[in-house]
Amino acid sequence: MARVLVFGGAHIDRRATISGETVPGASNPGNWHEEPGGGGFNAARNLAGLGDSVAMVSVRGGDAAGEAVGQAVEAAGIEDMAQVFLDRKTPSYSAVLENNGDLVIAVADMDLYDRFVYRQLSRKSIREAVAASDFVLCDANLPPDTIGALSSMTAAHEKPLAAIAISPAKVPRLSQAFTGLSVLFLNAAEADALCGGPVQPQLWPQKLRALGITCAAITRGAEPVLGFDRKGVFQIAPPAIDSIVDVTGAGDALAAATVNAMVNGAGFSDALKSGVAAAGIAVRSPNAAPPELDADSLAKAMALVPQPEFLS
Fold first, then answer.
1. Which of 80, 98, 135, 243 sees the fewest Cβ atoms within 10 Å?
2. Does 25 map to a domain?
3. Considering its fold, how many domains does the chain have in total?
4. Does residue 216 fall inside a structural domain?
5. pLDDT tens profile 193-234
């Protein structure tokens, strides 16, 4: 059983889905859904569901929301290595979605993550966990210096490090780790943010490689996922989705399934095929980390994903 160590967000996700057509500047009928989430935690739960041994390093507050997150970590069978700040509130993410699942706007209240300073990586339990891991995954909720220090630590232990971009505003936090990443997971908006503005998709590999990124997966909604590594550039077309319930967590599922395949010996292009299949399962679920995502359901979903098309 592979052991994956995850650093990053584990907080409360609140999502409102508008029932009808979105009317800006007005009250819209809809419903709220609340659950523990966060890019890192969503990926950690998906990894655990796929059979990996997972430990999660994060921070949370000593409030009811923090207790809910802690209970969710335990329920998922994930080793909880969080630091709890008893006098602080747990971070949260509140989003409003259109009735087709597309994001309208979101508010991230996540100041507590700035307290995960790089010095925390010197804790004996974290050093031992990195040394014992087969793969390390982080997200861009962490401070830049912490991400840079984590990259140095994983390199010293010769452990592969992957990262989830989280948002256009946060992806620059990963810059100190670009040259140390085994793979970066991001979407089109995050890729454009790193490139300094909107560019043609075919230029993403060139511009991201110039930043030191040697391997990445760039999602584009229903459009083919673009991937590149040292072997070349390719794309994978996601199967058509008959009904999208919620896009939240789809990128995290893609990252988790790709890492799961890589840690079990798959090459990047084949691993990303697993990721595309997992994302398809995620968008059909109301949960940010779909409990139905397991090895059996992933194998069935992969049968519908075409082979990677190499572009160069």
1. 243
2. no
3. 1
4. yes
5. 999 999 999 999 999 999 999 999 999 989 999 999 999 999
